[in-house]
Design brief:
Blueprint lengths: L3 E5 L3 H12 L3 E5 L8 H4 L31 H14 L6 E2 L4 E7 L4 E6 L4 E4 L1 E4 L6 E2 L13 E4 L13 E5 L3 H10 L5 E5 L6 E3 L7 H9 L1 H20 L8 H17 L3 H7 L11 E3 L2 H5 L4 E4 L3 E5 L2 E4 L4 E3 L2 E4 L3 E2 L8 E3 L6 H4 L18 E3 L12 H20 L6 E3 L1 H15 L26 H7 L8 E3 L1
Parallel strand pairs: 1-2, 1-7, 2-3, 4-20, 7-21, 9-18, 10-11, 10-18, 11-14, 12-13
Antiparallel strand pairs: 4-5, 5-6, 8-19, 15-16, 16-17, 22-23
Helix pairs in contact: 1-11
Bound molecules: NADP nicotinamide-adenine-dinucleotide phosphate.
Length: about 475
């Protein structure tokens, strides 16, 4: 049977899905709300943006890239890579740009999704793949007076490139990965750089050297060497880091903390500043920040770290609790993302009128991160409860896609018309994951975007190795096959 697949989103995971489906000769259309592909790499254009997963790992397994300029490639290079892969794979014609999916409604009689689009057009799909991203909806801080600021103010993921920065007095609210990269990239350009810190971060110093020409030439000539490099990076990442963060007692976490502390102590000689920058929680409890130069940047003579709480924003700048008004020309809100949205604001109506907004009213969840009971033939890539934050999301999406295709094959072969996780399996998964989450380093006493409204980590709480094993093949006993 020929199935019509609709993919929502043309970011890294949507492009992956389109390529794989196209290569398999399947019918596929991708709806993308923007006018360009790239997802997070299109939306985050702040100065200094780079991926902190090594580029040779943060690449599709089927499209190694010998041309990466650095160990951790800058954002624009990653965007160009995604665009080049999409173009040479011949999938650009399948993407409907500037078209947002507004509503998805399941028709049980036809076993199809009816789709309403922002253009007013409608479509139908046998299979929907939601590749709508995780760190997608900017979180604006609940600080009084933001709109009163007389200078330029914008979120890190909505960078306003028309605003001149040279010589400007720039403030950055936040100390996460985005803020740290912004401060490092701009401190030598701006007049002054003021970082407003609510919580200090553990920062691991990892150099980001250019990859030499002769090494790139070698990669061009030897595809096997590139594959071996990717495998080596994946195994190293998995065993030395990703598997450790889910075990609060893992010795490697103490070693990482020591490395972070040594980074701080060797670069920040002023005892007061060092004390302010020293976290009082364990390394990797919050998402670990990786930077080649953060402490060097924050100790520049034009850099200021403000730790007094923000009272409000005034037209001239930021007023803090000690009564100081920090006058600024530009204010960057590097305040993170709402990680509880996923598919929304799409209005998704499943079997018997079940609304996703109601099902997820407390918090989003999905069985093994890919399937939701009563929402048949709808699969999520990088959905709720998946491995995020400490893994290569490209690897995650590839593994999830192959798993989903094994379920879709049953519909294609006519062995069933509709497939979704059973309620019992989803409930069991939810119970097990909440219990396992209590053993992770993420619950050892810090605030972070990993935690849901109850303080339970929303992410995959087991090792990446277990993720790969469970995703090798679906256990059909956990699915309702209609
Ligand atoms: P984030 O890690 O969520 O950091 C948000 C920052 O804003 C935190 O320092 C937070 O303080 C602060 N903040 C939020 N509301 C505030 C308020 N009302 N007043 C004062 N401070 C406030 O966000 P992010 O830096 O954008 O990073 C999010 C994730 O994206 C990262 O963890 C990472 O997974 C990914 N990322 C990766 C890279 C990379 O690959 N290099 C780069 C950027 C982002 P508290 O800590 O006190 O909450």
């Amino acid at each position: 049977m020929t199935l019509r697949h609709v993919v929502i989103g043309a970011g890294m995971a949507g492009v992956l899905s389109a390529i794989k489906l196209h290569d398999a000769g399947e019918q596929v259309v991708v709806y993308e709300k923007a006018s360009r592909i790239g997802g997070t790499w299109r939306e985050n254009t702040y100065p200094g943006i780079a991926c902190d997963v090594p580029s040779h790992l943060y690449s599709y397994s089927f499209a190694p890239n010998p041309e990466w300029s650095h160990t951790f490639a800058p954002g624009p290079e990653i965007l160009a890579y995604l665009e080049a892969v999409a173009e040479r794979s011949g999938i650009l014609d399948m993407i409907r740009f500037d078209t947002e999916v507004v509503r998805l409604a399941w028709d049980d009689d036809r076993s199809q999704w009816d789709i309403d689009l922002s253009t007013g057009a409608r479509d139908v799909a046998d299979i929907v793949i939601a590749a709508t991203g995780v760190l997608h909806h900017p979180r604006y801080p609940d600080i009084e007076g933001v709109s009163d600021f007389a200078g330029a103010v914008f979120h890190s993921a909505r960078w306003d490139h028309s605003v001149p920065l040279e010589g400007a007095r720039v403030g950055v609210i936040g100390t996460g990965s985005s803020a740290v990269q912004i401060v490092g990239a701009l401190v030598d350009t701006v007049g002054s750089m003021t970082m407003f810190q609510r919580t200090p971060q553990w920062v691991l110093q990892v150099p980001n050297d250019p990859i030499a020409d002769d090494i790139r030439t070698g990669y061009r000539a030897d595809a096997g060497a590139m594959r071996a490099l990717r495998d080596e990076l994946a195994i190293g990442f998995e065993t030395r880091f990703a598997n450790a963060v889910v075990d609060a007692d893992a010795p490697i976490l103490a070693q990482i903390e020591e490395l972070c502390r040594a980074n701080l102590e060797s670069h920040v000689l002023d005892a007061d500043l060092r004390a302010k920058l020293t976290p009082d929680y364990r390394a990797a409890c919050k998402r670990l920040v990786i930077s080649p130069n953060f402490y060097e940047s924050i100790t520049r003579s034009n850099a200021h770290l403000v730790t007094d709480p923000i009272v409000r924003i005034e037209p001239k700048g930021v007023l803090t609790a000690d009564g100081s008004l920090h006058e600024l020309d530009v204010l960057v809100l590097a305040t993170g993302f709402r990680v509880d949205q996923f598919l929304r604001p799409i209005d998704v109506v499943g079997r018997a009128g079940a609304r996703l907004d109601d099902v997820w009213s407390a918090r989003p969840s999905a069985y093994l991160s890919v399937s939701i009971p009563d929402f048949p033939n709808l699969f999520l890539l990088n959905g709720p409860n998946g491995p995020v934050g400490n893994f290569s999301l490209i690897d995650v999406a590839e593994i999830q896609f192959e798993y989903v295709m094994q379920l879709v094959a049953r519909v294609r072969d006519g062995r069933c018309r509709a497939v979704s996780a059973s309620r019992a399996a989803a409930d069991r998964f939810e119970r097990d994951r909440v219990e396992a989450a209590q053993r992770t380093v993420w619950v050892t006493g810090c605030r972070s975007w990993y935690l849901d409204d109850r303080g339970v980590p929303a992410a995959w709480p087991w090792t990446f190795t277990r993720f790969r094993e469970l995703m090798a093949a679906p256990d059909l006993a956990d699915y309702d096959l209609v």
